[in-house]
Amino acid sequence: MKPNKNETRNVALKRIDYLYNLMNSESVVPKSEIVKQIEKLSVRFDITLSKNIKRSYCKNCKYPYEHNYRLRIKKGKVLVTCLNCNNIRRFDISH
Ligand SMILES: [Zn+2]
Q: Which amino acids does the record list as binding Zn(2+) (predicted)?
């Protein structure tokens, strides 16, 4: 029997959750690889990643923001500079 779509999607969601936790722990897997896997799953299963996940890594080099980033606040926006690739992202300050 084929698993139905929702079940497969739920498995993918759980997998993303697991990978996200892995990304925040000491891991032997390169973290940029974990991020790539998360993105792959979200594209394949049409899953919108939560804000937490989306804001936890650099979209350019797929490297998680850990110690290698700089935060600036400018005109009500948060500017995050990735010190790995110098990519700058802007976020609204969430209330
Ligand atoms: Zn980067």
A: 58, 61, 82, 85
Which protein residues have a CB closer than 5 Å to ligand 1 (ion)?
58, 60-61, 82, 84-85, 87
Give pTM, 2 decimals.
Answer: 0.83
| Identity of the residue numbered 71 | L
Mean per-residue pLDDT over the chain, rounded? 92
User: Radius of gyration (Cα) for the chain, nearest Å?
Assistant: 15
Contact 62/32 with Cβ under 8 angstroms? yes
Specify binding-site residues. Answer: 58, 61, 82, 85
User: Does residue 49 contact residue 16 with C-beta atoms inside 8 Å?
Assistant: yes
Cα(6)–Cα(60) distance, integer angstroms = 31
Identify the segments of the chain with pLDDT beneath 50.
Answer: none
Q: Which residues make up each annotated binding site for Zn(2+)?
A: 58, 61, 82, 85
